Structure formats: structure tokens, C-alpha cells
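Protocol step 4 of 5: obtain the predicted structure for the target chain.
Materials: sequence only (see below). No template structures provided, no constraints applied. The aim of this step is simply to have a reference model before the mutagenesis design in step 5. Sequence pasted as it appears in the construct record:
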Amino acid sequence: MSATPPATLEGWFALHQIFRTDRAGLRALHLEDRPGAAREIDRLASGLTAAEEGWSALSRLVGGGADWLLVHLRPTLEALAEVEERIARSPLGGLLELRYDYLSVAEAGMYRTTAEVAAEHDSGSEEYREALEGRLAEDRDNPYVRSRLFPEPPGDMRYISFYPMSKRREDPDNWYTLPIEERNRLMLAHGSTGRRYAGRVRQMITGSIGLDDWEWGVTLFAHDPVDLKQIVTEMRFDEASARYAEFGRFYTGICFEPEEWARRIGLRVPES
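Step 4 output (C-alpha cells):
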């Protein structure tokens, strides 16, 4: 018999884009064309960060083999596709080389709810399905759950770290063969580590099973970049990570305001 999958709730769709500046293209741009290109970039960046639903965060990478990390959250996949097209069609699009992108959706894994319902009903029964749907409807209205499905923008948390991850599927550490009760126990312990950083680090968890190569994306915002290191270090010692987690490449950067982009990319001379 297969293990019981945890129910999930989904919110905004997310797209992470990693760009490198095309410096040859930037050097080839005529001086007389640069002010107009800068104004177009100002309009693009302001439009991205002032979306009616959702938001975008702009950051310059430190290391990572690229220059820019853009994080976009929108209510639909179509809205994310429009973001991609707007960037590609803009003057900025001709100055950027896409190095990596990651598609996912803001997710809350309802391990505890699933485990509690599975303890009362057979997971293959109609009673289980009806009870689970009722509990999930209640969970969706929970303010904490909604904050995970529709995350707030980072505000004054300037430092960002993003990485994709998956759970191991090799015996003896196969996450997907564990009983739901055991996965719930492990995730509760894992979550308690993150809660100790409340107010210092804001976590955004997005799910990508069926959408991208990895299974989850983790985006962290912090006031102090050292807190990014410390929270990941502590979580590595949780059993859920130590035994069952695989990690992709980490990208770390510094968020900036939309009106700064033209200057940072080299299209506008800094004021003296």
C-alpha cells in the first residue's frame, strides 16, 4: 500500500529569474539611446513591483555566477507569462541573459491535518476525502496559512537567499515511503527551527512538483545576511533535512528599489 500523500493548499504562482548582464550589448548601446532605455527600464521596474495582485522583488546577486535575481508572485500562470514577455520585449530584455529560472506556486503542506484525518478514517475512503476537504476549507481561512499562500513583499528586509530542494527517494531514506504520521513529526520539528527566527527571517516556501525539476523552492529574506546562514545551518541539523533533503544551488543578493535598476545596470550615471 502506498504512503498517504500530504494535502497541500496553493496560493500565488511564483517565478524566480536569474539573469546576467550582457555587457557587450550594453557597451554597444549608443550614448544617445541610453537615456530613453533608462526611462523604459524605470517604467518596467515600477510596473513589476506595483502589480495589482502579487508583487515582484528585484535584487542584485553577490556571487552565484550571475548579476540579478528577480522574484515574481502573481495570481495565475498567465500573469507570470505576461511578466516574462514584458521583460523580454523591453529594452532591458536585450541587455539580459537568462541563466536560470524556476517555476512554482506558494504552498502550505498540511501534514498535521492530513495525519489527524488519516488517524480517523481510511485514507482511501470517501469519509476520509470528505473530512479532509472540510478541514482544508477551515485551514485556508487561517491567517497564518494565508500568509504562506499569499506572502507579503520583503519590505525593509534587504537580503535575499533562494535555493531549490527535493526530498530523497533512495532507501533507506526515502521520504515518500514514510508513514504520514512520521512525516508530520519531522516537519513539526523542522518548522519549530524556523519559528525561532520570526521577525529576523521571512520564509517563502513554494512547491514545484510537476512544474519544475526540483520539488520545492525556499526564498528567505532577512535584515542581516548572517541570519540567512544561521537559519539554514540550524535547519540542516533537523532530521527532516539531515536525512531526507537534497539542495540545489544557492543564490544570495541585496534587494533594491525599482528606480535604482537603470543606474545599477549602467544606463544612468550616479548623481555626484
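Step 4 remarks: The mean pLDDT is 95. The chain has ten helices and eleven strands.
Proceed to step 5.
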